[in-house]
């Protein structure tokens, strides 16, 4: 049988040149050389459908729009959705495939000053995995309708998890630097 | 310069034979063939230190222990931690590198019946990325001390994000199948 180790990794774009001019480094930003090799491989397991086809149109965070978006799971994984219909909310992981990966300090457009990548929810990060809590409004076969996404139409899906308030909700959490600023 | 597309992907273990006998399929579980190729590559950006060296010792979820765990970020990404010290809570993504990836329906040991992978927080999933909300108790250089992890000592780190209560906390979320059962 075919093993995970046999699976080739297709070419990806150069992260520093970037697919999108909006990703060019700005004053105050710091880039580092990326490691020489990957450590693990990701399968895209579906695609996300949203109303937004340009980055400038995307809401600035996942509560910035009430638009109903779709999550289309590849048929291969259809059975993995069994039981998902009992969840009011899901944690969705998706791959921001147009983001560069080498910035450790960033100066977000909608904010003042520079901050470390791990203090930001920017798609630009070593592993461009976005995580959003969504409200499930319906399932039709392998297509989920959800509210709470902020990404470009066609963004690759990498995981869906049930959201457990008991472990995932911390209502009094504080991000100190974020004194009324956008993320 | 070296581009992302030049980076080779090292061999990974066969997911179906599995590194760990606990991953053998149980009655009621369903496996599917994995795709022929990866779509993207992950960099391990650090390691997680926990008190648990055997899976049987790990807490059953991230609220199952008050143990202070450590997150050691590789020096390459040190500057990306700027500002993280102002956060009370973080969303940590890590790679469950010992989990098989081909099960779409699972029968968890601590639960009754079978459920779809996307309705479970099991490490066994197409992309074995775990997501945990942790409380930050201290930072010393590139080492974070946190409460709220449940994984094996040495687990690879893939991302750290600030936890925003405004978008990440949904206190009234319900997982319908989970009527007092463990996840």
From TrEMBL, chains A, B:
BP GO terms, sorted: methylation
InterPro entries the UniProt entry points to: TrmO-like_N (IPR023370), YaeB-like (IPR040372), YaeB-like_sf (IPR036413), YaeB_N_sf (IPR036414)
Keyword annotations: Methyltransferase, S-adenosyl-L-methionine, Transferase
PROSITE patterns: TSAA_2 (PS51668)
Residues covered by region (Disordered): 1-30
Superkingdom, natural source: Bacteria
Signal peptide boundaries: none
Presence of keyword Methyltransferase: yes
Classification via CDD domains: UPF0066
NCBIfam families cross-referenced by the UniProt entry: tRNA_TsaA
UniProt protein name: tRNA (N6-threonylcarbamoyladenosine(37)-N6)-methyltransferase TrmO
Protein species of origin: Rhodoplanes elegans
């Amino acid at each position: 049988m075919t093993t995970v180790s046999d699976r080739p990794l297709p070419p990806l774009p150069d992260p520093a040149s970037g697919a999108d001019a909006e990703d060019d480094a700005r004053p105050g930003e710091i880039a580092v050389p990326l490691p020489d090799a990957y450590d693990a491989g990701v399968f895209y397991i579906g695609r996300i459908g949203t109303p937004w086809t340009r980055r400038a149109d995307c809401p600035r965070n996942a509560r910035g729009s009430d638009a109903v978006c779709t999550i289309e799971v590849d048929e291969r994984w259809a059975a993995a959705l069994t039981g998902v219909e009992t969840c009011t909310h899901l944690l969705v992981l998706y791959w921001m495939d147009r983001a560069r990966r080498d910035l450790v300090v960033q100066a977000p457009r909608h904010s003042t000053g520079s901050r470390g990548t791990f203090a930001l929810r920017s798609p630009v990060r070593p592993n461009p995995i976005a995580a959003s809590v969504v409200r499930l409004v319906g399932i039709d076969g392998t297509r989920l309708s959800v509210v709470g996404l902020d990404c470009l139409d066609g963004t690759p899906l990498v995981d869906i998890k049930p959201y457990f308030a008991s472990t995932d909700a911390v209502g009094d959490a504080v991000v100190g630097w974020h004194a009324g600023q956008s993320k």
